[in-house]
Amino acid sequence: MQIAPVEIRSTETAESHENVPVFPSQHRMPFVLVTVLFFLWGMSNNLTDILVQQFKKSFELSPIQAQLVQTAVFLGYFCMAIPAAVFMRRFGYKAGILAGMCLFGGGMLMFWPAAIIGQYGPFLLALFLVGCGSATLETAANPFIAQFGPPQTSERRLNFSQAFNPPGTITGVLIGTFCIFSGIELSKAKVLEMKASGGYTAYLHSEILRVVPTYVILGSVVLLWALWIAFTKFPVIESEHLAGGDQGSFKQLLRYRHLWLAVVAQFCYCGAQVSTWSAFIPYVKQYTASTERTAAIFLTGSLVALAIGRFISTALMQWFSPTKMMGTYALINIALLSVGILHPGMVGAWAILATSFFMSIIFPTIFALGVKGLGANTKIGGSVIVMAVVGAAIVPPLLGFIARQSGSYALGYSVVALAYVVVAWYGFLGSRTQGEPVTDF
Length: 441
Known about the structure:
Helices cover 73% and strands 0% of the residues. The protein has helices spanning 28-58, 63-66, 68-91, 93-109, 111-117, 120-147, 154-162, 165-180, 188-197, 200-209, 212-230, 250-253, 257-278, 280-287, 292-316, 322-342, 346-359, 362-371, 378-387, 391-406, 409-412, 414-428. The longest helix has 31 residues, at 28-58. It has one domain (28-231, 246-432): Growth Hormone, Chain: A (Up-down Bundle), CATH 1.20.1250. It is an all-alpha fold. It contains 22 helices and no strands. 54% of the residues are buried.
């Protein structure tokens, strides 16, 4: 198959886009409805940071076992991204969004029977389904927003929609802090006393049941939002069909080097982001006198930093190159993580917290650069980048392994610093790679 060559415009150009609109002038309702999804899956993704600590206590897990919460969710990304893209190639973005929301909401409702069973495995299965739903939503929503307007402003538009993800993460952690964490932390002596009296098992089960109301309510909201989207008319994204209705192919993707470099960078970044947040509460508890709730509120501060960074950095993209900003932010995070590793305690915790500000633009910028110029291959190209989120399933257990072997969560963060080295390289060098035209095979 042969299609017209595709030109990839470098983001390093000094061309001004001040007169190019960022947002669509028509079909504002679909844009708003899809943007809200960034808020909803943000809530879910960071509720898992609460679950890591809650399940660690409720099921008496090791650090590695507790991090399987993240593995279950983000393994869903790896397994579902390409099937979601194949589904959307035939049925379109709207159908993909609705399918994702059904998986997403259904997985959350499964927390109810999982809690009644009272075993760790059913919760991991429910979280896997939530991850499959999130993967489908991200495979649909990110390229939909990136293409829902002029290509010159795709990075800014996607960063705007992604800016609603941090408020969702903040909301999720606050809900988890006050609705899931009971605030009861037993001393070793109290645990022995309750075991002797036969009340410890009932206490652990009551802690497990605390996750049910939050997830059932959130799952119900997701399904109701899906109903609203089902009755809303969505526009056709014309830029994907410039080659006479061609839907693209996975074979063609092999010719886009810039896509695969984006996949590597996204794998490392997602592993770094999720590891940073999922290990933050255990880090604070290990090196300070903070309680679970205090540590969770501290985690909320890191998500506030992400939200502030997203809005400020998106505005700065009018004057600064997104790729250079991304590379610079990655280098700053390496420096901050070094402080957290070498000076564990309150100073280190504040340094790790500050990395969230500089995470702000990395995911959406990598995604927008990776799908730019893919044309008919955008859906499947976007799915490959979403698959790279599996880094969030692999890196946290590595952090947990190092923490268990060394007895230090601080040393575990060295894995996160290494991941940012790759992101920095991509920002300064890898993202300059030009896409190659698709030719005959």
